[in-house]
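User: I'm putting together a teaching handout on how sequence relates to shape, and I'd like one worked example. Could you take 8-oxo-dGTP diphosphatase from Rubricella aquisinus, show the sequence you're using, and then write out its predicted structure as tokens right after it?

Assistant: Happy to. First the sequence, then the structure tokens directly below it.
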Amino acid sequence: MRRFGERYVQGAPYRDRPGAYGIIGDGAGRILLAHSTGKDGGWLLPGGGVDPGEGPVAALHREVMEETGWRIAPRRRLTVYQRYVFMPDYGWWARKVCHIYLARAVLPLRDPTEPDHTPIWLSADEAARRLTVGAEAHALRTLIRSGVSF
């Protein structure tokens, strides 16, 4: 499994934290990002942690709804990668195992419930340039090169 981000910190008490994230297209070539203004903010693929008893696809639906207000239709899992990070909101170290899915936007249902997240539609190239997390940008650039339509 490919690793992105910070280096592994020897002796840190890492907890596994699975996550699910979406490269979500609108059918017209645009990609949905979540722009977060929180302390760990930036331009992000919508998604987040998989809760206990929840699978990655269910987590993807829930997280996308919370961060963007959109209902989606996942098409397929694209890749899995890992990141070692300190999560200040939780006060612990995590080995994040991140599943990235290709999905289609279906319907906007409501405003985001995450107070510091704003959904933004961008061209695929612009989204790849703005993404804050290197692994997310890498996955999107790889998909663009493959010729997949969004």
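A couple of points you could highlight for students: The chain has a mean pLDDT of 95. The chain has three helices and eight strands.
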